[in-house]
Structures are given as C-alpha cells and as structure tokens.
Fold these 2 entries.
Entry 1:
Amino acid sequence: MCGIVGYVGNKSVMDILVDGLEQLEYRGYDSSGVAVMCEDEIKVYKAIGKLNNLREELLKHKGEYEKSTMGIGHIRWATHGAPTVLNAHPHTCTCGNLVIVHNGIIENYKELREQLSKEGCVFRSQTDTEVVAHLVAKMYAKTKDLPKAVREATKQIDGAYALCVMHNDCKNTLVLTKRNAPLLVGIGENEFFAASDVPAIIKHTKKAMYLNDNQVVVLTPEKMILTDIEGNEISPKIELLPWEPVALSKMGYKHYMLKEIHEQPDVIRNILVGKLHAPDENIILNEVKLTKETLKNLNRIQIIACGTSLHAAMIGKYIIESFCGIAVDVEASSEYIYRKTVTDKHTLVIGVSQSGETADTLTAIKQAKAKGSHILIITNRPDSAMAREADSLVPVNAGIEVSVAATKSYTAQLMAFYLLGLYMAEIKESVPVAELNSYKAEMMLLPQKIEQILAHTEDIQKCARVYSSTKDFIFVARGINFPTALEGALKLKEISYINATGYPAGELKHGPIAMLDETMPVLSILMKGCVYEKLLSNSEEAKARNARMIALTNSKSEKLEDLFDNIIRVPEVQELFSPLVAIVPLQLLAYYIAEFLGKDVDQPRNLAKSVTVE
Ligand code: M6R
C-alpha cells in the first residue's frame, strides 16, 4: 500500500524515480509526487490521480531538475486525508528544508500534531505523515545531524512506517528507516536505491539489503551506513533478489491480469518441481520444519488470511481435513486479532498471503507466535516480513503478481495446500497409499487441464457479453467449491464493480432466494462429486424463481441444457481438485466483463495490491 522509491548516485534521478513509481503503481494510485535535490534547493512536484498526471506536471518543469542525481518519490493510497495535491507526498517541514515520503500509519499523529502546532509548525495537509516531517525537522534543529534527528523522531512515533528523508543541508544524503512496513536498499556502483518493494529497483540492481525494524540507514553515492536506533553501527546483510526484470512485462497481453491467468499452468508445474516427482513417490517438503512426532500429534490447525488468500485458506481446510483428519479453523486475520484467540504450542498456525506484508495477517501470526504456536507461512514472497516470522516457510513460486486482482497466486496457494495435505497424510498414514498415489497422479495432470480451459475461452467470453450489463450476480456452490463461489464473486466485484455475492447453495432458500427474479444471474459451480445432485436441486429452486441460470461444470450431461441458459464446460477432475479447474473460468469471466465494460482491470478503484495498514 503506497510505494516509495529513492535514489542517490551519479545518474539523472527523475527517470529512475518515475520509472520506479510506475513499477509500484499497483500498490496505490490516487496521487504521486517526487522531491529532488536541485542545484540550490530541494524541489517538490506532485499530482493527483494516475502517474501520467505527475509526468505531465514534470514536463512543465524539465529545466529545473535535469541535472539532479538524488531524490525520493511516492505513490499514494489515501488513508488520512482525501487524494489531493496537498495530501500527496512528499511532505515538507514548515520552512521546506526537510522533505519526507512515508508508507504506513502514524497512530499518535493527532497528539503529535497538536503539540507541534502549539510549537509553531505550520501544517498544510490532513495526513498523518506530515507530523513526521515536522518532528524530524524539530530534532534536526536541535542536533544538526540528520540520521540522529530521524532516530530521535521515530522514538516518539507509534505505528507503522517506512520513511525516506532528505534535507537541504545534506546535499548528497538520503536517510531511511522503517518499522512494520517494508523498505529495502538496492546497491549499485557508486549509487544506492531505496524502495518499498523490489519491482521499483530490479531493473537497476539485484543486490539489496532489507532494513529491519528500527534500523536507520544513511546513503550517499559512495557509501551506506547502517545503524540501530541508538546509532550503533551494524554490518549490513546483503542479498541477491530472486526476481528477473522480465517478470514485470505484460508479454503481449493487454493486461497483467490476463497474462497472470495464462501463467497458471506453468505456476503449477513450477511448484511441483522438486516436491513431487512421480505418483508413487513421497512428497518432498523440506520447508516444513515440524518434526514427524509433532505432526503426528497435531490435533488442531488454524489458518489465517485475508481476501483471496482467505478463500485459498478455506479450501485448505477441506484439503487438510480430508487428507489428515485434523480439525482446521479458518479465520479472517482482521477478526482473529481482536478477540481472545485460543492457540498454543499444540496448535499449528498457518498464515497465507500473496504479498507476505498484509498488516492484519502479519499481526495475527505475531500474536500466535507469542503464544508458542508453530507458524507456517504460505507466501509468494519469500523475502517478505511474514516469511521472516515463519518457523516453516512454503514459498509458492508464482512469480511476481502485478495485477491487483490475485489470480495465479491463488492457484499457487491451493497447490501449496494440496502438497502440505498430502505430505502430512503420508506422515500420519491417514490415507491408503493407493488413494494417495491417485491424488498425486491427478495433480500432475492439472496443468494440461487448465491449458485446455485457456485454449477455449469462447463460451466464457460469450457469457461475459451476455451478463456484462447486470447490476448483481450470485455465485453458488457446495462443499469444497463454496470458497470458489466466494472467490469468483470477489474477482468480479473488485474489477467490474458489479455487486457479486457467493453463497453455499443450500443457504439460498434461507434468505438470498428472495433476491431472485428474471434479472438476477445465478452461476452454479457444478463439479461432479458428492454434492453434485444436491446442487442441481438448488439450481432448480433458483430456476423456478426465473433467475438467469449459468452452469460452470465438468459434467458432460446434455440434460443441463434444459436447466441452464449458458453452460461453461471444464475438463473432468477428481472432486478434491476441482477448485483448481473451476476458478480459471471465473477469473476469465470477471476479466472479460471488466474489459468489456472498459474498467481499469489491473488497477481497480480504491484498491491496492498490498494492504499494509490494519
Ligand atoms: O497479499 P495478501 O494475499 O495477504 O492479500 C490479501 C488481500 O488483500 C488480497 O487477496 C485481495 O483481496 C486481492 N485484491 C484479491 O484479488
């Protein structure tokens, strides 16, 4: 949520900043701004709306900053204060000598603002961030030492922050610090980059250092000095970033979302590499650090996640309970953290997150960890804050996901649950070997089945055209595909803004059926298995209320044509694995409807890729 980029070196800074912000635009995009050190002073440029507006603003001032080789930039997702130019970052202190950009939330900003106002600071924005500019400036006035001023100021701040600071007195210096929000330093030849996420800098360098909480780093073109909050020097831990710049291209697709949907067969193949070699061989999950003894004695698992990851977690419950017979509770992280959760060292707590940075999930796993639970993290970002909290880390290797709507990361998370479930079943001997082998054989066929869906999208596109003018949409399913219904509805609403809801089909008659009439599309996820006939009856109930009926099915039955107005057919698959083939047409349906309506598919309104505020 929000993006930070910074640079100090010997190259012209503006292109580096704006290009970096473009790579972070998926994190927030309601306003943006940059501050650059020009010959005589720092200059700040801002604009509301998409980054192109900032580009246009910058064109008007080209002569002013062309020679500048140091600066900071920010792309915003508004939390405190509307998306206006005044609220856009960078923010300055009263005299304008000090400039900062900030990700996160300053929780005690009201008290600080009151105090600083009394002391004569002039506030120009409604943001929480501006207090930090004034506070660091106040400390600088006392110390005349920018890193020290940053350290002293952050001691007075409650909340989460990644900060990048510049001062007119320090012509070649950037100061960075963070707490509970990601920030990294990219290392080049006589140059350093700052970024809140890898995509902003990966074009320039793969060498980087992640800041830990309360560390402060001072960057000049020649060197980087890392200290703790007391100013004691620490030796930096430099690592190689596991990303390739090519991952950030659309590769000919109109949108990242479509490209990412099409990557799913390869994502599944990648996650199986090294973990499943043949149906009659054991699953290899060296990442799981639970001992066999602990695994055998586990009697409870909690899974916590948000959004799409929560839907993957709900399917994870079906998988683990079916394979291992262990009771699994699933909960939205935002609910988990504000009640008295019962968890202890006998409970395995699984956190699921694409970004590994979602604030609610991060807080939840920290709480569970403090109670002694083993923390297993399923994430697409092994370099994330959540990964660093993990006792066991299952990386899903989906590659960077740029579109705000999660697609391939969801498939990868499901695969991680299948692998984990089978791995635990093998250890617990809870499923006969022949049955286990048949599951593994099915998993190895999944990429081809998804390829078949991706090769024939005509029916899905037809449905998208037919239903694009609807105001509401209902998705129903039962059993393991109930979460698929929730995920199908989430995909549709977040990118097309159509009011879409997912229900367990058996619940229709307990209320939602009152909504049905000839204007309401009802999509039934009819996968062959134990709930197929039941769902068929529920679909009949909806049809009897004149709803517009759509089936997503792997049944070849022609009888369905009497009941449904439109049918999307997918390949046959064992029921337990049907969520993987069922979700792909739903992602495509949402995509084609949003595209047909001319919506901003990759950057839907009000959303951001990574939600780093609670
Ligand atoms: O990075 P995470 O998986 O923790 O993110 C959780 C949700 O914010 C995320 O899944 C969100 O719901 C997506 N926009 C879904 O497409």
Entry 2:
Amino acid sequence: MRHLIGIEDLSVGEIENLIAVAEDIIANPKKYNKVAEGKKLATLFYEPSTRTRLSFESAMMELGGNVLGFSEAQSSSAAKGESVADTAKVISCFADIMVMRHFKEGAPMVASLNATVPVINAGDGGHNHPTQTLTDLLTIKMEKGRFNNLTVGLCGDLKFGRTVHSLITALSRYTGINFVLISPEELKIPEYLKDEVLDAKGIPYREVTDLEAVIGELDILYMTRVQKERFFNEQDYIRLKDIYILTPNKLRHAKEDLCIMHPLPRVNEISVSIDKDPRACYFKQVLYGKYIRMALIKMLLEEADK
Ligand code: CP
C-alpha cells in the first residue's frame, strides 16, 4: 500500500508527473470529474486547519468522490483515548483513502502502518507537511517555470515551520538551488536538516537575521508564521512573533519577478498592502494546492486499485 508521509516518499520523477497531471487538471478540469466516482476520502484532523482539510475535501469532490471525517480530536473517539493505530484500522473500514493531521510527530506514520488504505500526512507536529510542499512546488513551477537555478529565501520560524522542512528537502534534489535562511537565532532550522540534507548534499546555504539585507538576491521569498502553538514559553513567542513583517518599503530592493510565497495562515508577517503587488503569490498558492491534491488522490487511488 502506497502512502505519503514525507516528501521523500516521492521520487523526483513522480513529483514531476504529479505536477504535469495538476497542470492538465487546470487546463481540462472536466476530464477528471469522475476519477474518484464511488470512492470516499476521510479527513482526520486532530489539529486546526482551513486550507489543507478543505482543499482535500474540495479536491475529492471535484474528482467525483465523497468525503467524511472530523475536524478536531475532541469530536472523535480520540477524546475517549482511542489510539491512532486503532483509528487507522477503523477508518480503513469506511474510506478508500485517509488524510491525517496530528499534533504529534510521527502519528501519520503510525496510521500508515495500521491502515489498509493509503494514508496522507497533512502535517505532523513541527515535522513535515508534504502536501504543502507539493503545493509549493506547483506554485514555483507555475510562477517561475523551473526548479533549477533559484535563490530561495526562507524567512521566519524555520525551527517549528514544518512546511519549511519539507520544502528544503524537496528543493535540495534540484541543481543550482541556493538557500538563504532568514531567522532569529532561536528559530533557526533544526540541525538534522543541515546535517542530513544541506551539508550531506553540498547545497549552498547561509543563515542570516536581516531580511532587507538579502531581499534583492532572492528569486523566491517564502515567508512563514511564528508557530505559537509549538512554543513552550509565551514570553518567547511574544518577543519573536513580529520579528519579520514584509512591507512595501522592504520590497523596494527586491527583484521585479520575485515570487512571494506563504503557506498561510498569515498573522502579521506580510502587510495586507502587499496583497495587490503582482509578486504576491500566496493566494494563488492556495488554489494550486487544490489541483496538486487532486493529482495526488488520483495517483494513490490508482495505485491502491492495482
Ligand atoms: N498551509 C496550511 O497548512 O494551512 P492550514 O493550517 O489552514 O491547513
């Protein structure tokens, strides 16, 4: 049974195939409206979500399938102490594919070891968020036309921001990628990413604190929210939460074709006055997320039926 737990579960060729299918869905949506007819997708969300859960549900509906699920742990039998392993066995009786978001790192992996249908990780703690990465890759393809030879600035909470961890892993498989990691000292990317991905693959990167000093070099600026829910100490969160706020003034020295991305939700990191700037790609990114999730559901259902 094929699952998607981390972005590394997909080869470069498979990702490129998913992107090609998503592009075809954008061009020919009617061609795909019976792909999941008679199939059910379950969304098991133990943590809040707007985009990921609703884009999966919308994606399944546009493929002609049906959806079921829960949007908070308290409305499921997790509140009575049911384990993730047992929940995965139970949901396998009701659905053809399941999507899980959980506050504990590794929970979707546990689900995949116990399910008899494909499991998709929709975000596990501060660890991974592979379908956000597929969304980000489709956005980069649509907006920049390539994955090679890009200077990518990642800004904000690089420690707890799981979307950043998955995106670094994914882009490290392409040539000519240069990362600029912009964060305060306390929110730098985890050492394991440096050791196992960046240093292991010889990917050029540098860690800086000043966004304005580097903004002119960037082809992509990936802003992130400081992840309040993962802080142990509220004082630290309050001290760091507004450390980077992208304003029109800070964009003065940015490239004309800069692509500004954000996985959303936004809190204060990007001034709303940037939303109309042609370089703001973050709401287009949301829509791309639906199309790439349609391509992913299609692929996993077809593989499960083999
Ligand atoms: N980007 C993202 O994961 O958004 P949600 O938390 O709303 O799903």
